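DM from R.C. (forwarded with permission)

"hey, sorry to bug you on a friday — could you get me a structure for this? deadline for the figure draft is monday and I only need the backbone to look sensible"
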Amino acid sequence: MMQEIVRQISANSGLTQLTVKAVLDELGLALAQLRPEQEIRTPVGVFSIAQKRGFMGNHPKTGAPVEIEPRTRVLFKAAKHIREAINT
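My reply, with the result:
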């Protein structure tokens, strides 16, 4: 999937596949360094980090209560022009 995205961006932009892959890799590294109060704005949308609180759940087989640990999630909100293109 990633290679197909790299090929498509490369073909549409005129950049080499190595350059496109390097840019996407750097975006991934930048996302890994984000803190909850930060966000990265790009032409395709906004990436941010959110803390999801822990809660009590149930084991699917036994029904026993299980504590679900708090975790960090990457959120993405697509830019308006992308949302409109998808919804037409």
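R.C.: lifesaver. The chain has a mean pLDDT of 91.
me: no worries. The domain at 35-88 is CATH 4.10.520.10 (HU Protein; Chain A).
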